[in-house]
Amino acid sequence: MTYEILTALVAFAFVTSITPGPNNMMLLASGANFGFTRTIPHMLGIGIGFTVMVMLVGAGLMQLFDAWPPSYTILKVLSAGYMLWLAWKIAHSASPVGMSAGAKPMNFLQAALFQWVNPKAWTMALSAITLYAPGREFIAVLWVALVFGSINLPCVSSWTILGQKLRLILSNPKRLVAFNWTMAALLIVSLIPSLIA
């Protein structure tokens, strides 16, 4: 991989990882509702889960979409349904003070598996492989996955930090309810670019 291609890949990974999307909206809400420390497994699940996803897409999953294009439409519909359910859960989150003992942030495995129903993650992975590992050689796919793995985690963590900083402002239950409903709406809105692509 040449220096120019690597630089372009780093920029692509940064822009796609830092911009709003389902993962980042959920981390913002989790940071506000649970704090940074309790959201670490969620962040790690995203970072590692997406890196594995890029590797598997580059290793052959992309061929399924090439061979049977309706599979991508089916994935979009299933993903949209799951996202709507998550938006409902975020909208109905309780305040940190009044939170039930059973309330928990997303764990590592849930966050890692979430990448497989996240339309933005699919768009990012498919685009990254198409643009930066078009021949799908193992070393090129590995480079793409490693670059995303090293850039994605700090980017998504910044959203959790922002959510945590908002926690003081959101200590008022009415403000937190408004925030959670706003995050749910933004999660739904964040689907639009991926669903119409």
Overview of the molecule:
- The protein has 197 residues and is an all-alpha fold.
- The chain has one domain.
- It contains 8 helices and no strands.
- Helix 2 (22-34) packs antiparallel against helix 8, helix 3 packs across helix 6 (119-132) and helix 3 packs antiparallel against helix 7.
- It is globular.
- The model has no long low-confidence stretch (mean pLDDT 86).
SSE layout and pairings?
Layout: H1 3-18, H2 22-34, H3 36-67, H4 70-91, H5 108-114, H6 119-132, H7 138-166, H8 173-196
Helix pairs in contact: 1-7, 2-3, 2-7, 2-8, 3-5, 3-6, 3-7, 4-8
Explain briefly what this protein structure is:
The protein has 197 residues and is mainly α. The protein is 80% helix and 0% strand.
Keywords:
single chain, 197 residues, mainly alpha, 0% strand
What's the helix-strand series?
HHHHHHHH
* Low confidence ranges: none
Tally the structural domains. 1
* Extended strand count: 0
Q: Kindly, what is the distance between the CA atoms of the first and last residues, rounded to a whole number of angstroms?
A: 28 Å
Query: Can you give the helix content as a percent range?
Result: over 70%
